[in-house]
Amino acid sequence: MRFQLTGELEMTRSVVREFAENEVALQAGQRDEEEQFDRKLFAKIGELGLAGIPIPEQDGGAGSDFLTYAVVLEELSRVCASIAAVVASHTAYCAWPLFKFGHPQLKLGALAALAGGRKLGAFGSLDARIDNAVGAARMTSRVKGNDFVLNGSQPFVMNAGAADYYMIFAHSAGERRTSGFSAFLVESGLPGLKIGEKAMKLGLRSMLTAEIIFEECEVPYSCRVGKAGQGQEIAKAMYDIGQIGAAAQAVGIAQGALEAATGYAKERKQFSKPIGRQQGISFKLADMSAKIEAARLLAYQASWRMNEGLICGKEAAMARKYAADTAVSVTIDAVQVFGGYGYMREYRMERYLRDAKCLETDIGTGGMNTDIIFRILAE
């Protein structure tokens, strides 16, 4: 086995890292403080071809693979996890399912704009286990002439308020069966679609999150993604990509925290020598580095399996769980290395910690990853 990225992928990493440090990092703290999403920054990401990495070129994407996707999210998260979360949500939960399941007419109208970053996608969270479809149970649809009429609400919708398109799941009116829900691509601005209360989050604060409400919202019949009742299959296809993206984001957060802590440990002197030379700090940094490398390999393994068309549900869930746990552990240790400065808001350590915690908890899923790993093992 060769644990080596291709030269092309290393070049991609270098380009994205330069962009992240020169463009993304500059106002990251301010965006977090003000809880503001920067649409111009997302447009630049689209211009670099990073908004639709696994989408084929003929459909407006970069025509790349999921390992590249993981590396890009890792590099963005290294300086700003919020913008990486925006890209991940947009790609995995809107552009990708549209590419995989959307009919040609629907893709012709929306996919190229999403994959190219000219439009932003959002996802109405399932809000619990995919096979229980609790989120879909909040939404109902019925046919009215040539339209579907959507009613209900979706909490914790990522990119809500800024998005141009929403990927929404809903049951047929009167149904609550697990297999009975469908997916819809809903364009923002339709009558009956309202943005509800904005979520005030601990971390990932410049990725907008809010409730969306549907009141007799008429959606063209052509906007159904896939077939009637295919929602569960679509949700499962989205899930593994989402887990890989979250794992990559966690690795990036942890890497950024480690680099900052290591740099500080080299500069900060105590008892006439850098604190990094003291065993209490040097051992801590070594442990942080080992955990990050293990998390990175798990994320890359899951990405590689998806590239090869192999089953990767367990690997993706394991990567997500371990990487998120690692990010929290590493950022806590990084705060400790900085001492009192790590607690101060003007330093990015506390932002790294808050962002890591969001990935560990994942709004609406709780211990979902552990449960999925166990169920796969028990089969």
Question: How would you describe what is shown here?
Answer:
By secondary structure, this protein is an alpha+beta fold. It folds into three domains: 7-115, Acyl-CoA dehydrogenase/oxidase, N-terminal domain (Butyryl-Coa Dehydrogenase, subunit A, domain 1, Orthogonal Bundle); 121-229, Butyryl-CoA Dehydrogenase, subunit A, domain 2, CATH 2.40.110; 233-378, Butyryl-CoA Dehydrogenase, subunit A, domain 3 (Up-down Bundle), CATH 1.20.140. The protein has twelve helices and ten strands. The chain has helices at residues 7-24, 28-34, 39-47, 66-77, 81-101, 104-115, 134-137, 231-267, 279-307, 313-338, 349-361, 368-378, and strands at 121-123, 139-144, 147-158, 165-172, 181-187, 193-198, 209-220, 224-225, 269-270, 273-274. The strands form two sheets. Strands 1, 2, 3, 4, 5, 6, 7 and 8 form an eight-stranded mixed beta sheet that branches. Strands 9-10 form a two-stranded antiparallel ribbon.
Give the topology.
Elements: H1 7-24, H2 28-34, H3 39-47, H4 66-77, H5 81-101, H6 104-115, E1 121-123, H7 134-137, E2 139-144, E3 147-158, E4 165-172, E5 181-187, E6 193-198, E7 209-220, E8 224-225, H8 231-267, E9 269-270, E10 273-274, H9 279-307, H10 313-338, H11 349-361, H12 368-378
Parallel strand pairs: 1-4, 2-4
Antiparallel strand pairs: 2-3, 3-7, 4-5, 5-8, 6-7, 9-10
Helix pairs in contact: 1-4, 4-5, 4-8, 4-9, 5-6, 5-8, 8-9, 8-10, 8-11, 9-10, 10-11, 10-12
Estimated structural class: alpha+beta
Q: Distance between termini?
A: 28 Å
Count of helical regions: 12
Q: Please name the CATH topology of the largest domain.
A: Butyryl-CoA Dehydrogenase, subunit A, domain 3
